[in-house]
Amino acid sequence: MFKQHPKGLYILFFTEMWERFSYYGMRAILSLYMVNALLYDMAHASTIYGYYTGLVYLTPLLGGYIADRYWGNRRSIVFGGLVMAIGQFALAISGQFYTTPAIGHSFFFLGLFLLVFGNGFFKPNISTMVGSLYPEGDRRRDSAFTIFYMGINLGAFLSPLVCGGFGETGNPADFKYGFLAAGIGMLLGVLFFMWGRNKYLVTPEGEGIGLQPAVINKDDVNDERNKPLTKIEKERIAVVFIIAFFVIFFWAAYEQAGISLTFFADKQTDRIIPWLGNYEIPASFFQSINALAIIVFAPLFALIWTKLGNKDREPSSPLKMSIGLLLLSLGYLVIVIGAGKADTGLKVSPLWLTGMYVLHTWGELCLSPIGLSMVSKLAPKKFASLLMGVWFLANAAANWLAGTLSSLYPEGGKATYFLGFAINNLSSFFTIFMIMGAVAALILFLLYRMLVKLMHGVK
């Protein structure tokens, strides 16, 4: 399979792998750094985390626009990657001076700003280059994106182990090494991209891709962009907006991985392994479970959908996404039970978190790639980028909501409230996400037949 693809695919594979290494490595220790080094309380750390990850999904709208109109993909990727590397190094400087608030806190927020800004130029451009390596109708495209997705998850799997291993040692002064490792990873990705871009990033005809922005002739009356939307196109667009609304609830619960679930791993999980000389697993390591589970289970899910499709029994995209929300809810049911044990003062087995993350991965495989594929199929060509932007906006809203909800995490016995619901222990806190996922899954299940009709034959 690998030999059948152009070498440019592997330039993009390793570039994206290192970028994801950088992002997820930093994310694995971000909340722990804020709480244990900068001494923010969990609520404040959760709020900052929510704003940061939310903005990460907003800036691609700006970066994508500049790439399309002025810079092209290549220049945007190099610029964005270098800015993100500088952002990681700024966080490392923050970690060096974390006991000096004027320096430590200033470089911390500077680092977050640079990461958000640089990501806007990098994220929307690299994946668009994958398809350009192949001619229209080439059957290799689907497997190319599968290989590219493996690069994403390989980086996401390795980074918490490396950055968490260097940074989360029990000594707050060591967090800087985790951020430094993330910065070096990002720099390696940019350098690898710059090394191979001219020779390997070419069309089947040998022309360089990503060099020039797209040109649109606004005066061409025959241009598809100038034609009014049909009734079918409007109804398909409506489906995108409806599904995007439900996606908010999925990611708001799923993204607790970097905040409240990391707090749970840090404070309430028994991470000592006696048969390894009482080695204590860093809390950040648990964030590798999801990526590893995707690598293991993604081929299985692809096989299931293929076999069901051959029998004309494959679920529709909205139904798959409803199943994804249900699996998310079941994952939180597992952690609610585990949290009930933690509420008695005991530290619980790592298997509770492991089981939850595996269920969440299954839910992600039913929702995330399905949703992206669905948007690309439903969106009229002239609004393809705009509607993908809507999808990013839903993710931005979800990440902001994730931080807001995580700020309700019960700390020090203090009770908080959500819509009148008292949160006075860990079990009641995680119940919010269990109920949210279950209700969203039920409503989407009740609507899916209507949505299928509005999709007008799009599978």
Layout of helices and strands, plus pairs?
Elements: H1 8-36, H2 42-56, H3 59-71, H4 73-96, H5 101-132, H6 140-167, H7 175-200, H8 231-254, H9 260-267, E1 272-273, E2 279-280, H10 288-310, H11 317-342, H12 350-378, H13 384-406, E3 416-418, E4 421-423, H14 426-455
Antiparallel strand pairs: 1-2, 3-4
Helix pairs in contact: 1-2, 1-4, 1-5, 1-6, 1-7, 2-5, 2-13, 3-4, 3-5, 4-5, 4-7, 6-7, 6-10, 8-11, 8-12, 8-13, 8-14, 10-12, 11-12, 11-14
Task: Please give a structural write-up.
This protein is mainly alpha-helical. It folds into two domains: 7-202, MFS general substrate transporter like domains (Growth Hormone, Chain: A); 226-459, MFS general substrate transporter like domains (Growth Hormone, Chain: A, Up-down Bundle), CATH 1.20.1250.20. 72% of the residues lie in helices and 2% in strands. It has helices at residues 8-36, 42-56, 59-71, 73-96, 101-132, 140-167, 175-200, 231-254, 260-267, 288-310, 317-342, 350-378, 384-406, 426-455, and strands at 272-273, 279-280, 416-418, 421-423. The protein has a two-stranded antiparallel ribbon with strand order 1-2. It has a two-stranded antiparallel sheet with strand order 3-4. A hairpin with a 5-residue loop joins strand 1 and strand 2. The mean pLDDT is 88.
